[in-house]
Structure to design on (670 residues):
DNA sequence: TTGTAGGCGTTATCAC
DNA sequence: GTGATAACGCCTACAA
């Protein structure tokens, strides 16, 4: 076997030469086989097979101004939070002949702008962003690029383009109401501290106040949200505020950790401590006790985002271009 | 604001015109700023800022035959198994100016070949595959492409190109030895049924036999490996073989589920049932009790794969081109 | 049904 | 230090 040095791969020209046709005919055989005579087609296919020719997508994308590629930008791949959405996006896009390209931004602003620029460079047919783009720089770059954009997982009055999300403020308030109705008077949060989480916290605190309860400062966790940080968060919270009888965790993994920690501390869930998670990504239902959680339909977000992006990439228009998907509280045994 | 139709984004020509220079000078200003006069540079930068110009990576990639892109192909993004590796890959590549593109293949053969082709089309500077490529078709396509390839997470006598992995057979045997030494005589597996898992099972069974123990059929789970399937797997296993005193789970999420289920069944871990996981991705250490697990250094795999791919993409050679990273059994309280 | 010419946006090369 | 030219590999438009 030869040393795998940069022996240039075959081009459409090479294949054409081997098949005894023009490059254009090879292109047709590959893209619109019905427009090629059967025996010509066979000769081309034979040459393609023989050379293992794979067309160069940079060249065809350049010529067509269509990359058949959609980019998804996520803060992190760690944890189950965005998996449903990515899964659904991937499936939907694949079915329509688009490839999904995933980029990780971290929860860091500079990194996000970097990634945004790198993504725009590839001229994908669409960009799906997790969360809303906050930097003016990033927003302008996106708009100037002319690429269809879907922001997700959050609402905003000023989307860059399209949006499919839900209200974190509503979630914060709804969870307070839910726990209050179930008799809890000392309720608190174990939460990440990203923008979406802060929005929930603000609404949570406001609702606590409007019900005449006293505000308890949340225990903040560092990203990524893991079982371990959930355990630590709950420990800190209860050390500081032992009167707490109910916690709302900003993700199911945190809630799972909190549940484990509660047991370690000798607290019965839900009798002595009620726990509510966020996301509902399987772990919640599979835990013991099964966790009450705020369900976010990631699959639906992914599907809608794919629909929107593809529609616009193919010249259609999308309406409504802003969708609030809402959420629901799934009651299980942890509360 | 204008309707976001396909108003063509600016090209390097537009920027050149605005800055009053040639396209070539803009290109230099962007790529080798030290080679242009300071005031020219300033004029170009001003024009770039004004237009929000972002260079077209398809065009530059085509011209340079370098995409500054590395593709990682994963069976799934669900679950923590490959996260460490992806995280490390992303970080290493980003630091060197490469972008990481992630593709999901599912555990499906046809889908994998599809994804391989789609990936080769983009002409990335390297491809990192999780697991070894099994289809002859896929292997040939990869070799013909001339793209540096790193297979990971597994060993094989016939790598496509480079490889950084570890021996699943050794793991299977080592876990049997470990549990046997700790006095267990009825040991079994709760396992996924992908190729790597099957290799572990085979070696596990062989070692069980060579120690004179009787073989117990594993409980198979469907991908993805979740806590829920771990719970179900253990339930099935114990229903069939109540004599089992130790289980080896093919991932930490399965082990976590098994641990939960054991508790539900009223079994003390580890007194009545020992549990060993695989992966060591945080959840193992954060569980209660903390889980004994076979540690795989995903970070190291990611880093090495990035090193290898970049070295080769930049014309260097890599040696050794096959690395066995090994594994270690981390003893915690579940065994 | 097939082929020829030209250009997508960028950069290597060589000339000034 | 800067610019003109050509070429990367493919496909649109048009011609045969």
């Amino acid at each position: 076997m030869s040393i795998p040095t940069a022996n240039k791969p075959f081009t459409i020209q090479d294949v054409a030469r081997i098949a005894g046709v023009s490059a254009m005919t090879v292109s047709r055989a590959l893209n619109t086989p019905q427009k090629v005579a059967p025996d010509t087609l066979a000769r081309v296919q034979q040459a393609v097979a023989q050379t293992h020719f794979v067309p160069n997508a940079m060249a065809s994308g350049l010529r067509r101004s269509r990359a058949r590629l959609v980019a998804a930008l996520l803060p992190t791949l760690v944890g189950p939070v965005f998996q449903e959405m990515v899964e659904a996006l991937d499936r939907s896009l694949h079915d329509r002949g688009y490839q999904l390209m995933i980029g990780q931004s971290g929860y860091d602003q500079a990194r996000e702008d970097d990634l945004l620029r790198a993504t725009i460079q590839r001229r994908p047919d669409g960009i799906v962003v997790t969360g809303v783009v906050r930097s003016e720089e990033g927003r302008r770059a996106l708009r100037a690029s002319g690429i269809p954009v879907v922001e997700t997982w959050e609402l905003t009055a000023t989307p860059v383009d399209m949006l499919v999300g839900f209200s974190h403020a509503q979630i914060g308030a709804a969870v307070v109401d839910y726990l209050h109705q179930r008799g809890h008077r000392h309720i608190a949060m174990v939460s990440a501290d990203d923008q979406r989480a802060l929005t929930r916290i603000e609404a949570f605190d406001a609702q606590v106040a409007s019900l005449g309860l006293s505000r308890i400062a949340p225990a903040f966790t560092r990203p990524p949200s893991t079982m371990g940080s959930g355990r630590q968060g709950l420990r800190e919270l209860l050390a500081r505020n032992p009167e707490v009888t109910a916690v709302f965790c900003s993700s199911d993994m945190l809630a799972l950790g909190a549940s484990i920690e509660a047991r370690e501390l000798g607290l019965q869930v839900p009798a002595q401590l009620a726990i509510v998670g966020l996301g509902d990504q399987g772990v919640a239902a599979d835990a013991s006790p099964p966790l009450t959680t705020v369900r976010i339909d990631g699959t639906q977000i992914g599907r809608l985002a794919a629909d929107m992006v593809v529609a616009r990439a193919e010249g259609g228009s999308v309406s409504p271009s802003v969708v609030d998907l809402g959420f629901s509280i799934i009651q299980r045994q942890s509360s």
Observations:
- The longest strand of chain A covers residues 69-74.
- The mean pLDDT of chain A is 94.
